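Dear all,

This email documents one entry for the complex benchmark we are building for the journal club exercise. For each entry we list the sequence lines for every component of the assembly. Then comes the predicted three-dimensional structure of the complex as a token string, followed by one or two observations. Please use this as the template for your own entries, and keep the labels exactly as they appear.
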Amino acid sequence: MATAPLVAQALTIRTVADALHVQARGFSFIEGPVLSRLREGRSVRIDFEMTVLSKPEGPVVKQTMQGFTLSFDLWEERYAVSLIGSPPRSISHLRPRDAETWCLENLTLPVSSLGFSRDTPFWIRLAYHVPDIGPEASEAPSERYTLRGLIDRLSRRREEADLAKSVDAGPFRLP
Amino acid sequence: MARRLPRRRRMRTLALLFVILGLPLAAANAQEADAPEGAIIDVVEMSGFSLYSLSPGLQKDINSLVGAPFSREGLNQLASRIEQEQPDVVAAVRGVSRPDGKARVIFLVARISDDTNLAENINARYIVETVDVEGPYNEISQQLRDDLQKLVGRRLDTEEAERLQERLRTELPGRAVARRISKGSQTGRIRVVFEIFEEPWIRFVPPKSKLVYHSQQGWSGVLDIPITASHSRHRFTAGVVFNDIDDLIEEYSGFRLAFESRVIGTERFGARLEFSRYNESWEDATLTALASSSGVPELYRNRLTFEPTATFAFNSSVRISGGVSLSELESLSNSPNSQMANAWVLGISGDHLWKGSNEVRQRAEASYQLRAAIDGLGSDLVYKRHLGQARYQIDQGRSTAIASLSLGYITGDAPLFERFSLGNSTTLRGWDKYDIAPLGGERMFHSTVEYRFYNVGMFFDTGSVWDRNSDSKLRYSTGFGVHTDNFFLTLGFPLNNNNDSGPIFMAGVRF
């Protein structure tokens, strides 16, 4: 098993076996409206996207997406995270930063799928968005399941920037 | 020695016994009595998990329970330690009394990912203490109230709570429903709160997006993209119109931009600004009819409109609005000369929704609008346009009945975009508007009766459009098709058409 932290930027990468992991300092998402919703006992879905680029803003080499469901245990006062998809994976009793880290640890790309040699530079874009923060931010419910409602949802601008974030970093090289 | 845990964990209670309901328990019979405090423990079992997956220290502490007095607090601490060591599980503990007076202890452990409720929301491990509704509780049916209360005393079923939330939305149309959870009065208990938000008193103008096909008139397309901000108080809409021949006598393309605010200081006051620019083209039937008519203003190639309006809501049902509509019409034959059609706009509208028993829902809407173009606004065309509309809809189960009535009246010299027309995808379905009145008319009457069952609809339209100096002729049409709120596929038949024309096919989406 090889673990290789690389460039010290907003993002760092490491490889574990054939999996490329990304770590992000200051890439918090349990805050703002997400935090408010969790504290009200609601669950929040967060979708992550990790994209490997061959150049800054350049062509996409590989991309992976993963969704997570977060909730806040009202009595334990700790966070729980479940990975959406198969195989199901869940964890609880986490502090906020640990919950965020767990999400990123479960967002991986197979190194072999990149087709890079060790000296090939590449860039990474890490992004998340919260697809639905709840009915209080939505239109009248009569529009909920209509095409109009769909367009509204697709085009609605969130005033809270916390509902989506993206960070680019590079160049990286495989160890 | 076990670390001393926070009080809330020490007080873990029967709430966690939900696991008993969710795990196959060969050993624990739910009818067995709980072990009393102080009873000597003679058996310790672990269900759903291997004891050897735990740390040696925790294994030792669990094994050392044998022979010790039963202590609920101490056992809860051990359950908490299991969860801390294995964060992908939830753990509870139960002690049952044996016939010999000793206690049997069972640790009940379940993986979170094995339970969709827990994976969705970790608070699904807790027992619901109360279910509250914040909002118009009296408007909820007794059946739904009862079903809401069935959540109490059970572990939170998030899927069932979601279904109940959806039923609330259905029973309280026009309102938003949210759900939150808070701590109950006892540790391990939770309170579920359904929040119902009133619909704003002033509503945004619905987007007019559509893609419509009419077998006589062709395609019409409109795409409005609304962008809502600031908790839905304000909305900006950008719209593009592609050859819309469905609405008016003219066929027009262009764009519009609108900004709306439905709360300005108070929910009673709102405002709207719309700017639009359209290029017009005209059907041969209109050109021919115009050549032989008098009193109809000239055609235009471009229509530029700015329309600021303000709305005041008396309550959630009745609103009054006023403003101006300033239009510049660039002449088709004498470009770049243009005419102004500047009008005061005054409107009043009301709607109400009744929800009765047996899933019966009724909605009534009525509106009246006056557009008065006068010299004082610098208008070249002076006219008054009155339009009254009413609509009633009743839904019961899969059945829907709709009745609507429109009356229009124009005095003066109204431009063509103000003149009434019938015979499109919503009025006198089965007729072609260019066969009825290719220049539109100054008077209009139209009514519709429609019945739908499982989205299959039948209708009967009646209408007439005419000018002040001509006689009115009442026309009828009927037809059927697939009709939903957003989609329609209609075959319309004109009933008293002497031209022996066939049925008209219409299809499209509106959203």
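Observations: Chain A has one domain: 11-168. Chain A touches chain B through 43 residues (CB under 8 Å).
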